[in-house]
Design goal:
Layout lengths: L1 E11 L2 E10 L2 E6 L8 E4 L4 E4 L1 E6 L12 H10 L2 E6 L10 H14 L3 E6 L13 H6 L4 E3 L8 H14 L2 E4 L12 E2 L2 H6 L3 E2 L2 H17 L2 E4 L5 H12 L4 E5 L1 H5 L21 H12 L5 E2 L28 H10 L6 H15 L16 E5 L4 E2 L18 E2 L2 E7 L2 E5 L5
Parallel strand pairs: 1-4, 1-5, 6-7, 7-8, 8-9, 9-10, 10-13, 11-12, 13-14, 14-15
Antiparallel strand pairs: 1-2, 2-3, 5-16, 16-19, 17-18, 19-20
Helix pairs in contact: 4-6, 6-7, 7-9
The chain binds N-carbamoyl-L-aspartate and zinc ion (2 copies).
Length: 427
């Protein structure tokens, strides 16, 4: 099968250029101006943006265990609709992939159901409880590409130290949800004036920073690739920046909601504004953006966390933590960062595709290039549209961004040469 994309405004390594892209079976075979060839399918992109497929290394698909919230089919359709061609799924599912057997089963299920590339994190400990380590080698052999206990932090230095040593020996990344539970005190939003006004229990910055400081020292000692999930505090960015200067092998991600929302926007007890880590302050948002712009934070990850309507109704005191992200991320980032002149489209592509690929050693992804796997996405950045629940492919419609007017709508997503999403009306 040969597919020719005509008039693509393609974000290439050498800059954004108007080109034609020829795809043969699973690969890009030629990128050039005016390719004249016979192809089974010719699609006129009409000057719209073509990006290397987006990569999200932090998503929750709830499969197995909570498929009322999401499953691999709906999650991967949400990914495709958001322009993502690769996702890495977190292991806070039931059962937790903490043995080779469970891991193998998950990997097989993921691969058979997903319409995008999918990789699975193994857990760091049995049942993710900070006690007994998994058999890392066995999990790696069964398909784990990295390890994480996301949803919970590792509560003792001893367990983290052992985990880092063993994961380093296997040369895989450790992605950390940093949260000291002894400091959490049943908090549901950022500790501060807004929490006081609303009468809601707060989550202190130390919950994140104290454990992060501990981990950075253990990472320095062990040399492991330590990746910090969903950084939320200015102080965390500073700690990571210093550790990088000191030569610690630390990388980090930020979620769109931590860039664009803060506690002052929580004007009432609203479960849609509840996520972990919580929305922080304007100063934190600015520091996260600076961290992205200066390279301290290498990538954007959505932390796509779908929940049922019931789980996100009522008070923040009892609602579940987390919001969905795959289908809104690009639009929000394009509108609020690129359109407003804060960064270039090339930078955004670095954070959403090229750098996740580089940092996590994802082969044949992150760049539009002849000879590479044809993972790409076509974005219409000229037409404004409204984020609406009814359009979501995800089972989770729990996001405070519903109703926002944005630019950057996915028109087409291609995974290994196969069109997995195409907006109706597109030729
Ligand atoms: N981020 C969240 O608020 N929730 C995540 C867990 C996590 O990422 O820690 C979830 O699984 O729902
Ligand atoms: Zn987490
Ligand atoms: Zn998460």
């Amino acid at each position: 099968m040969r597919i020719l994309l005509k008039n693509a405004n393609a974000v290439l390594k050498e800059g954004t250029q108007l080109v034609d892209i020829l795809i043969e079976n699973t690969k890009i075979v030629k990128i050039d101006t005016n390719i004249e060839t016979n192809a089974e399918r010719v699609i006129d992109i009409e000057g719209q943006l073509v990006l290397p497929g987006l990569i999200d290394v932090h998503v929750h698909f709830r499969d197995p265990g909570q498929t009322q919230k999401e499953d691999v089919v709906t999650g991967s359709h949400a990914a495709a609709r958001g322009g993502y061609t690769t996702v890495w799924t977190m292991p806070n599912v039931d059962p937790v992939p903490d043995t080779a057997e469970k891991m193998k089963k998950m990997v097989e299920h993921n691969r058979s159901k997903s319409i995008v590339h999918i990789e699975q994190y193994g857990s760091i400990t049995k049942k993710r409880t900070s006690e007994e380590l998994v058999d890392f080698k066995a999990l790696k052999d069964a398909g784990a590409i990295a390890f994480s206990n996301d949803g919970n932090g590792i509560q003792t230095a001893e367990v983290m130290y052992e985990a880092m040593k063993q994961i380093k020996a296997l040369d895989l990344p450790l992605a950390a949800h940093v949260e000291d539970e002894s400091l959490m005190q049943h908090g549901v939003m950022n500790e501060g004036d807004t929490a006081k006004q609303l009468g809601l229990p707060g989550i202190s910055e130390l919950t994140e920073t104290a454990q992060l400081a501990r981990d950075l020292e253990i990472a320095r000692n062990t040399g492991v690739h330590y990746h910090v999930c969903h950084v939320s505090k200015a102080r965390s960015v500073e700690l990571i920046r210093r550790a990088q200067r000191d030569g610690v092998n630390v990388t980090a991600e930020v979620a769109p909601h931590h860039l664009f929302l803060d506690e002052t926007m929580i004007t009432m007890d609203n479960p849609m504004m509840k996520m972990n880590p919580p929305l922080r302050t304007l100063k934190d948002r600015q520091a996260l953006l600076s961290g992205l712009l200066d390279g301290t934070i290498g990538m954007i990850a959505t932390d796509h966390a779908p929940h049922t309507v019931e789980d996100k109704t009522g008070s923040m005191k009892t609602a579940a933590f987390g919001i969905t992200g795959l289908e809104t991320a690009f639009s929000l980032l394009y509108t609020k960062l690129v359109k407003s002149g804060i960064c270039t489209i090339e930078q955004l592509v670095q954070w959403m595709s090229s750098q996740p690929a580089q940092i996590f050693n994802i082969q044949h992804a992150g760049e539009l290039k002849s000879g590479e796997i044809a993972d790409l996405t076509v974005m219409n950045v000229d037409t404004q549209y409204k984020i609406e629940k009814k359009d979501f492919a995800s089972k989770g419609v729990n996001t405070p961004f519903v109703g926002q007017q944005v630019y950057g709508r996915t028109e087409l997503t291609m995974v290994a040469g196969k069109i997995v999403f195409q907006r109706k009306g597109q030729n």
